[in-house]
Amino acid sequence: MTDFTMKTDADGVAVITWDTIGKSMNVMNQQGYVDMIALVDQALADDAVKGIVITSGKEGTFAGGMDLNVIAQMKESAGDNPALGLMNGLMATHDVLRRIERGGMDDKNKGGKPIAAALPGTALGIGLEIPLACHRIFAADNPKAKIGLPEIMLGIFPGMGGTTRLVRKMGAIAAAPFLLEGKLSNPQKAKQGGLIDEVVPADELLSAAKAWVLSEPKIVKPWDEKGYKLPGGAPYHPAGFMNFVGASAMVNGKTQGAFPAAKALLSAVYEGALVPFDTALKIEARWFTNVLMNPSSSAMIRSLFINKEALEKGANRPDVPDQKVKKVGVMGAGMMGAGITLVSAMAGMQVVLIDQKQEAADKGKAYTADYMDKGIKRGKASEEKKAKALDLITATTDYAELAGCDLIIEAVFEDPAVKAEVTKNVLAHVGDDCIFATNTSTLPITELAKASDKPEQFIGIHFFSPVEKMMLVEIIKGQKTGPVAVAKALDYVRQIRKTPIVVNDARFFYCNRCIIPYINEGLRMVAEGVAPALIDNAARQLGFPVGPLQLVDETSIDLGAKIARATKAAMGDDYPDAAVDEVIFWMEGEGRLGRKSNAGFYDYDEKGKRQGYWDGIAAKYPQADEQPDLIDVQHRLMFAQVLEAVRALEENVLEDIREGDVGAILAWGFAPWSGGPFSWLDIIGTPYAAERCDQLSEQFGARFATPALLREMAEKNQSFYARFTDQAEAA
Ligand code: NAD
């Protein structure tokens, strides 16, 4: 049994069907290349065959990409020289696709047989790179299908010829969004964008591809003809040169140089554009090898692909029957409640949205209408979808409407007394099996659960703002939370298509626990006279979306001050952040509350556009003549978060380091290139991490003290993934 089979019809068209055994979607593995090219070669050599169509045996999809084991197998194929193994493996793949592209033509472009790709639907990564090597790409008109090259999102780039072929097919500028941003399109848009050639009704896909193959089309690719010029101009053409200068600046501006794959991709494109096609493929393979040898790419693939998917599929779900939610009650129609209502209705659940006044509940429901209207304007939603979502939402003040709810999500004011009263009232109106979840961001779940007579059915479901955009949901188990509640929360998160992590109850749970020290370290540096621009830029150059000072402006200074006061009250003499409070309370006193007051660490214009840093900061905290090295500022910002993650693991708040890594990237944009806090520690090595913490704690204080777990692992030269998972080698 193989993944590829071939059947030649009476007209002489050989149809090669890809159908990966045991998978719902096709993925390419090492044997797949061998089997596919064997059939292509056989068809090319067969006089009865006039042309070939490559298609999929899976309904509605062509292929989801490459089996990641291929990379690991290539690395292992040349003994102790993984780079050589990769280079050889990639060149062998290029050879396979090049043979398809040449279709059996000789050096003078004579002879040969046409090969068409027929895509029933989704075609991603290698699933598009194979079609790009064919002579014409047909796709079924399936609006749900996604076509594109998303590799860059995983810290790699299209390295099976996709980069070189797309740039030659459409020019560097047109290819940029597909390569650099991993943009995915439906078939119609993919055709408009030039990714594919024809879109036909699904039931005519094969006949259209066959008819084209039999029409004796010209099959030589433009880049295999004499005098070929890159669309838009190659680097040494004046027009092309400016494109590349612009692209380089744009990529560096966007990535701050923190993502090795983006740089390598650009190099492959630029250098490849200067040379003939086959040499360009070799250059692409070298840069791809370079990226795959960088620990960043394996860490990113492990966190953002393998582990993210595992968590979404329920890696940590208790073994209890399906807990799919049918009717959810959302308490509080403010910012969070409105967002939770939106995502729940979009997932097809019935939603009862309750607030104190009908007006407030209606306003919360209107958020869904507004959101759908924006989608309709951008062509992403329809009136029908909008009506369907709104139909599912009942906005009311009447608790009786909660009857039949199997899940409640409470998002009222962050006040334990208000929450307790709401909990009691709700429980009087719902059935015995209903699970009650709170969206609190700071209050301990175990305490809030005391308002319920069924604490095993009480849980935290912590969303991030804005709900519809943020992909992570943090599920928090109180001391008495039972497995059914956990399963319910996980099944709900799966329904709304977000990524869950499950943690134990402790102050600030996991995510906020790590974000706060990041912000605080930035504030401490302000008090020390470090230039604000150095603080924020150091973070951005690490790949964080925003620096700590910008982040506190966005989330608001008074919220920071409120959290500081509450934490101090709870911790008493153990409270460690007096230096931070000095800055934050001063800002609060100055009325500089951040973006919402149009004044914070930054100045803002009347339209709310961020200007430079407020000069009052330098007046209060004069900048030191000697500024610290960039790397020292970066290490303070990184270790402030990472050590908190290690402590969360030590204290069993985190039970699974995969959740620690995935959660950090999705919740607060923790340097994605690193794969997350634990992956970063593995990249720099635990011995170095412990040594660096010793230095930092001596210089800056006990908050950097090496946690016992890290110390022990450093002594054994152990990595987190080796110790806590079976994924020491990711890909
Ligand atoms: P918000 O002030 O925008 O909304 C709260 C809503 O609850 C208001 O509409 C209010 O009228 C309603 N409400 C208050 N008491 C009520 C009662 N007794 N019955 C029914 N409705 C009542 O607040 P928000 O930002 O949406 O936050 C809500 C919860 O979510 C808080 O616990 C907060 O800590 C948490 N949270 C907020 C964020 C965030 O970024 N804003 C993020 C995660 C979690």
Q: Kindly state the percentage of residues in helix.
A: 40-55%
Uncertain segments are none
Which structural category do the helix and sheet elements fall into?
A: alpha/beta
* Radius of gyration, whole Å: 28 Å
- Major β-sheet profile: 8 strands, mixed
The CATH top-level class label of the largest domain: Alpha Beta
In percent, how much strand structure appears in the residues?
Answer: 5-15%
Our count of domains comes out at 3
Distance between the termini: 27 Å
How do the strands line up in the largest sheet?
Answer: 15-14-13-16-17-18-19-20
Here the CATH topology of the largest domain equals 2-enoyl-CoA Hydratase, Chain A, domain 1
The appropriate CATH architecture of the largest domain is Alpha-Beta Complex
Shape, principal axes of CA atoms: globular
User: Helical element count?
Assistant: 30
Count of DSSP E strands? 22
For the residues shown, what is the average pLDDT? 95
> CATH homologous superfamily of the largest domain?
2-enoyl-CoA Hydratase, Chain A, domain 1
Query: What ions, cofactors and ligands are bound?
Result: nicotinamide-adenine-dinucleotide
